[in-house]
Each structure stands twice: as structure tokens, then as C-alpha cells.
Model the fold of this input.
Amino acid sequence: MDKVSLTFRVFFEDPFWIGIVERISDGTMEVCKITFGMEPKDYEVYDWLLKNYYRLRFSPAVKAEAKKEHTNPKRRQREARMQTAVSGIGTKSQQALSLQHEQLKEERKIRTREQKEAEKEARFELKQQKRKEKHRGR
Done:
């Protein structure tokens, strides 16, 4: 049976409240970032997640190591302190979000390039049409 783990974190990143959804399955992690306005309450976050989960756009999958089942809470606290001191919080999530951001940026560049070329072609056609109208001898 396939095991899927879902983590939802809400934190304040000036000036907005941000939600990060991490979905781990088959050794890969996908991340989605949600921007809230004011501070959401727990029941609002839960309700929002239930209603909008299937509309979330997750980042491309990034390889993630499997989590250990159960360890001593003090040991977990010590390990968490050591990890945050060395590399910061959520580096895998941040990598996945940056990868998604880069992909969206590339898509946007392609779309704008096509729009500019279409506008240029339309202007050229209009210019040619005007030239032909001038040379009809009227």
C-alpha cells in the first residue's frame, strides 16, 4: 500500500501569512505555497484546505528521504536544533518552491514572447495592406 504524508505549516512572512503544503509519497516531495491575508484561525485553515486541496498547484517532485517512525522527543529536539543551525528551516521545501517559481517564469516568458510575435505579425500585415491600398491607383 502506498503511504502519503501531508504537512501544512502556516507562518508569518512580512506582510502576509503564508501556508506551505508538503506532500510526500514514494520518496518524493511536492510543495505548494498559499498566501493568506490576515492571520487565519485553525478552523479557517482546515476548512480552506478541505475545500481547495484539489485545486492546489504543487511544484515538481523533489527526492526526499523517508522519515523515521518514532524517536525520543528530546533527541528530536536536539536534532532539530542542529539542523536549523546548519541549513535553515525547510530547505527541501524552499528548493521545490524555487523550482516551481522558475518553471512558471519560463512559461510566462514563452507566452509573452508568442504574444509579442503575434502583435508584430499583425502590425506587419496591416502595414502591407495599407501599402497595397496606396498602390491601387486611386
Notes: The chain has a mean pLDDT of 84. Residues 91-134 form the longest helix (44 residues).
